Amino acid sequence: MAKLRAVALAGGTHGNELTGAYVVKNAQWLFRHWQHSFSITPFLANPAAFQIVRRYVDQDLNRCFGPAAPQAPTTVEQHRAREIIDQYRTMDFIIDLHTTTSYMGNTLILSRPDPVSLQIAFAVKQRLKDLKLIIWGINTAEPPILSSLLPGFTHEIGPVAQGLLDPDIFQQTLATLETVFDCIDQYNNDQLPAIDSEQVYVHHGPDYDFPRDEEGSLTGYIHRDFLHRNFEPLKKGDPLFTRFDGTEITYDGEEGLCPLFINEAAYYEKGIAFTLVKEQRWTRTDQPGFLTSDRREGGISG
Ligand SMILES: [Zn+2]
Predict the structure, then answer these.
(1) Cα(13) to centroid of ligand 1, in Å?
(2) For the segment 190-202, what is each residue's pLDDT rounded down to a tens digit?
(3) DSSP conformational letter for 147
(4) What is the CA(28)–ligand 1 centre distance, in A?
(5) N or C, fewer C-beta in 10 Å, the chain?
(6) CA–CA–CA angle 242, 227, 121 (5° rounding)
(7) Residue 66 binned pLDDT confidence (cut-offs 50, 70, 90)
(8) How far is the CA of 135 from the centre of ligand 1 (A)?
(9) How far is the CA of 236 from the centre of ligand 1 (A)?
């Protein structure tokens, strides 16, 4: 297979996720001793949002990479998505750095599980045992995210507050990146260990909203026993929310599915308290749905 010579490294796609933003802004220092078989091109994905330390200016940039490209982008993020597509779509691989307020730990999100991305992600997971692999946007109607432009993935790590640079999260992000770069190097040198299968979590849905009143105001919060249960299979009757009146809301959905993005601050406005994923074992050649739709051709959604 073709070598990966040009690697794009995005950060600050969400302007209040400082870890990735400061990694790409300081890439010339952070990576100065590393010798690789490929070039690294760091870029700040949403400088306007980073400037005001907000997730976005007009709309979520990371939902702007769909096929229905308006000929004349109107929002700050649609313009930026067009620039990013034009500038980086001919590169070989992309890593997009994110953080979450959810207690998810260290994860890679593959929104385009092609064989090269899977092979590299499997190898990274072999070396970082606590890493979780998430497959996103295959079974659900999520708009395409930035890392779906090219082979590659999103790095998502938490918990860390929005607008905060946490030393442990920053160091873990660098350590994960170093492992990813090593694996890309091994791939380019035909030395990547062949790993036949790995545990992955495939986005399944549905999304669950917080309990709310008719005006949309919260009537409860995440149950304390649920807060740390990302990736743990759910059973009927498991507590999800505590209402302000002290009563509980419990799970009544399909058993065995696992919650993800529990209490992500940015999702309150989206009406998402958590979503559900399904644990599966994937082989290197699994690629259900990959490139069967025209969703991944890199236009801009409206
Ligand atoms: Zn993000």
Answers:
(1) 6
(2) 999 999 899 999 9
(3) G
(4) 23
(5) N
(6) 150
(7) confident
(8) 16
(9) 30
Helix or strand run (H / E) with residue 23: helix 18-25
Ligand 1: distance of its center to the CA of 26 in Å?
19
Spatial distance between the Cα atoms of 184 and 4, rounded to a whole number of angstroms:
7
Using CA atoms, how far apart are residues 196 and 289, in angstroms rounded to an integer?
A: 20
pLDDT digits (tens, 9 = 90+) for 179-225: 999 999 999 999 999 998 999 999 999 999 999 999 999 999 999 99
Q: How far apart are CA 20 and CA 112, in angstroms?
A: 21
Instruction: Give the chain's length.
Output: 302
Q: What tokens does 286 get?
A: 């699994």
Q: Which residue has the tokens 């993005």?
A: 261
Q: Give distance in angstroms: CA of 45 to centre of ligand 1.
A: 11
Indicate the CATH number for domain 6-196+284-296: 3.40.630.10
Q: In whole angstroms, what is the distance from residue 259 CA to residue 273 CA?
A: 10
Give the pLDDT mean for 265-292. 82
CA of 63 to the centre of ligand 1 (A): 11
Helix (H) or strand (E) run with residue 47 in it: helix 47-51
Contact yes or no for 50/43 (Cβ under 8 A): no
Evaluate if residue 94 carries a pLDDT over 80: yes
Could you tell me the CA-to-CA distances from 229 to 99, 125, 206, 222, 255 in Å, in that order? Answer: 18, 20, 17, 11, 14
> Where are the chain's structural domains?
6-196+284-296, 206-272
Q: What is residue 287's predicted lDDT score, i.e. its pLDDT?
A: 57
- CATH: 3.40.50.620, 1.50.10.20, 3.40.50.150, 2.20.25.160. Which one for 206-272? 2.20.25.160
Asked if pLDDT for residue 245 goes beyond 60, the answer is yes
**Given the DSSP bridges, would you call strands 220-222 and 248-250 parallel, antiparallel or unpaired?**
unpaired
